[in-house]
Amino acid sequence: TRYKVGYLIGSLAAGSINRKLARALIRLAPEGLEFHEISFKDLPLYSYDYDSNYPPVAQAFKGAIAASDAILFVTPEYNRSIPGGLKNAIDWASRPYGTNAFTRKPSAVIGTSPGSIGTAVAQQSLRSVLSFCNSPQMNAPEAYIHFTPGLITDDGEVTVASTKEFLRNYMAEFHAFIGRVLTVLPRQAG
Ligand code: FNR
């Protein structure tokens, strides 16, 4: 079965290593996954003052999540948590109350850092947020990618064979996980 995966890259940096990781994951993913990026860079800072009149950019953002079968988060770690822009985006998607776009939406979390723990603390933080948002998360495999110079080329070629196989397996597991979740939970109307 084919599933539509919307992916969010936590970094807005032009040279983002997490964007390189996302490109690699797309290249290594099984046939049954198709991808579209869900950008959050144009969202204003959320306030509940917007709840009575959600701006079109936020409606489109929520619509892109709703239209996805699953969400993949590829994020750096900033100060031992997720970047503020990503948290802001999740807050937008979760509101107005009762219209949380993440509820029952399968997700997975991955990230890379030059630091040796490879975004582990940010991922724990993100997992708490997604739990509250009622997103069923892939628990295993976990993936904490320690980025070293040249590990992934700009166009997403992984240069270390063992890492390449690890990431290929991660995406195969994600495909299987989405299938399991959609078997027990009805697909959400777009
Ligand atoms: C970082 N970086 C970082 N790395 C890490 O492993 N743990 C951390 O807590 C932080 N904190 C942090 C805060 C801020 C504000 C910045 C800008 C950076 C380093 C970070 O991993 C590195 O800049 C990566 O290149 C970020 O990923 P992208 O943006 O290149 O995808």
Automatic annotation (TrEMBL):
NADPH-dependent FMN reductase-like domain boundaries: 4-147
InterPro entries assigned to the protein according to its UniProt record, in alphabetical order: Flavoprotein-like_sf, FMN_Rdtase-like_dom, NAD(P)H-dep_reductase
Pfam families: FMN_red (PF03358)
One Gene Ontology cellular component annotation held by this UniProt entry: cytosol
One GO molecular-function entry: oxidoreductase activity
Name this polypeptide is given: NAD(P)H-dependent oxidoreductase
Naturally occurring in which organism (per UniProt): Neoroseomonas soli
